[in-house]
Structure prediction request, 356 residues.
Amino acid sequence: MDIEQLKKEIARIEADAQTEIDRTETVDALRGLETRLVGKKGPLGSLIGAIKEYPPEQRGQVGQTVNAAKGRVQALVETRLRQLRSAASEAEARKVAQFDPTLPGPVEPMGAVHPVTAVQWEIERIFERMGFTVEQGPEMEEEYNNFEALNIPATHPARDMQDTFWLTNGKVLRTHTSPVQHRAMIKFGAPLRIIAPGRCFRYETLDASHENTFHQVEGLMVDKNISIPNLIAMAKTLLTEVMKREVEVRVRPGFFPFVEPGIEIDMNCEICGGSGCATCKHSGWIEILPAGMVHPNVLRAGRIDPEEYTGFAFGLGLTRLAMMKYGIRDIRVLNAGDIRPIVSPRRLGGPIVSEA
Ligand code: DAH
Prediction:
């Protein structure tokens, strides 16, 4: 190719470059194109590569011609770059102009953890520190697990203490969290330490202290040489931590078919401190924690040898405890989903008082 042809070729290359550069829409695309156009393997680069084919006296002129063209292509790139950048900042400016500060902001979700859930979480943390696992059982339970496995045979009068919802599939809505004791024994064997928080159901007439749906936390510890003092120590620790005060407990005998002996652990009344008020029926004590030593029949049903192991169990009324802790006087507000009777859903730390 002689010099004249070379110049024509360069003009064509530049014209093509111009078209391609103008077509780019982004800075990145433009940068990519630039590398391709002015790189060694690009159209101008290969002209430089062919410089050896010219007679020595022409090589200087060829070099200059091609390099000048390269400079012009680079200038085209710079121009396009400035255009793209200013378009981008205009778009940004338009966005800012569209912002309307008078529009309402994003809606912040409102609400708070339910008092029963808050106490449940707290209790789970306390027991986890004492080496207990948190277990769950189904709300729709086998009749066997809810009764027989807990030493309550079909004819036992204790069945009358729990007015049960019987389901058409032969199962029951669990009347307590105690069936999880049996499930845990089968699942883990001995030794074991579990708590099982959850919802329970009874066919009750509703009033300020009775609900058909309420929460309990079951506890079970089975090991060698477990005795009543372990149980009482645990109860005191638990109640003191939840109530955030030094709780006094007293122990009375109580009857539950799944424990022997069975006891009732009471705490001194939250409202009057023990001097007597309407909440504690003027006794100064609140029934809070039925418990006992696991009955040998219950251990046997759970495939644990009662000659080798003993254990304690308890059934904490979680709903009751939450009501005590937060000063809620009517159990029905807890399931109502109506936050009006509650002073402030955000003040979970403080007392929540019902209107009634
Ligand atoms: N399941 C009993 C109830 O709901 C409460 C209970 C009492 C649970 C004594 C226990 C226990 O584990 O040892 O009335």
In short: Residues 83 and 213 are 70 Å apart (CA to CA). The chain is about 40% helix and 15% strand.
